[in-house]
Design goal:
Its main location: membrane. Keywords: Electron transport, Membrane, Respiratory chain, Transit peptide, Transport. One of its GO terms (biological process) is electron transport chain. The protein has about 100 residues and is an alpha+beta fold. Helices cover about 10% and strands about 20% of the residues. The chain has one helix and six strands, in the order βββββαβ. It has one helix at about 60-70, and strands at about 1-5, 25, 35, 40-45, 50-55, 70-75. The protein has a four-stranded mixed sheet, covered by helices on one side. It has a two-stranded antiparallel sheet with strand order 3-4.
Length: about 100
């Protein structure tokens, strides 16, 4: 039973950074998922897959794992790469892209 500790990234439907501040602890699947033949749903008998814990800091999540004897793996969050661009860059002399209109 190995746990993953990570900071979730924002979804494609978000413009802000809601639900990305807390660190998340969830467990690696112990059993593979199975396809139910009648309806085609995927299911698993592993109840640990349903557990997702949120912590305010990475240190709190690590302390929780060590306190309960859970093996863990920490995935560091990479800062988002911001591309600075301005409207004036569309008309720059050294523009690399061709005009499309």
């Amino acid at each position: 039973m190995t746990a993953r500790i990570y900071k979730p990234s924002k979804t494609a439907m978000q413009s802000g950074f809601a639900n990305t501040k807390a660190w998340v602890l969830d467990f690696e699947p112990a059993q593979p998922r199975q396809v139910e033949p009648l309806m085609g749903w995927t299911s698993s008998g592993d109840m640990q897959q349903q557990v997702r814990l949120r912590f305010p800091s990475k240190e709190d999540a690590i302390a929780y794992c060590e306190r309960h004897g859970i093996a863990y793996q920490v995935f560091e969050a990479t800062p988002p790469h911001r591309r600075t661009i301005s409207y004036a860059d569309n008309f720059a002399f050294k523009r690399r892209d061709a005009w499309t209109h």
